[in-house]
Write a structure and sequence with these properties.
Elements lengths: L3 E2 L20 E2 L12 H33 L6 H8 L7 E6 L7 E9 L5 E10 L5 E11 L14
Antiparallel strand pairs: 1-2, 3-4, 4-5, 5-6
Length: 160
């Protein structure tokens, strides 16, 4: 560090570079400063970047928790009814309805069975209806089931 002698004024506590002799005022050039401190602008930019990162992480965690809570709600699907019906061997044409009991207390279901062909091919239409806030259809499904011995033989038509 190069120091330049200015005058013989008494030394004050401020305004002197470290290492100056007593009674001599020293001036330090700007290029020779050590630069160990941060400027206010640098601190503000660093804090802005930090807070943007923190708020991004908080938003990510919040969305993850919301999505996890949505996964806990079990959706009501007509596929449950279709799976139950697929286990049976007999089908009868007509409309049937019911509810899900205590599992889904606000939901009802309707099933309509129609024979598509005389060979035992049936079309089954399901609808799951939520009873809260009026009648609102939640889920619909239509499947085809082949049950050759399911229905009664029609008069004049032998069963194959």
């Amino acid at each position: 560090m190069k120091l330049k002698r200015i005058s013989q004024e008494p030394r004050r506590a401020w305004g002197h570079a470290p290492g100056c002799a007593a009674g001599i005022r020293c001036v330090q050039r700007a290029s020779e400063r050590s630069g160990t401190a941060f400027s206010l602008l640098e601190v503000m930019i660093a804090m802005a970047i930090f807070f943007m990162a923190v708020f991004s992480i908080l938003a990510l965690v919040s969305n993850g928790l919301r999505n996890a809570s949505l996964l806990l709600e079990m959706p009501v699907d007509a596929g449950m009814l279709a799976a139950e019906l697929a286990e049976t061997n007999r089908l009868e044409e007509g409309v049937d309805s019911g509810d899900f009991g205590d599992i889904f207390p606000d939901y009802k279901w309707v099933r309509q069975v129609t024979e598509v062909g005389s060979n035992g091919l049936y079309q089954v239409d399901f609808a799951v209806i939520r009873q809260v806030r009026g009648r609102q259809v939640e889920s619909r499904m239509s499947i085809l089931l082949y049950r050759p011995g399911a229905g009664q033989a029609r008069p004049g038509m032998p069963r194959r």
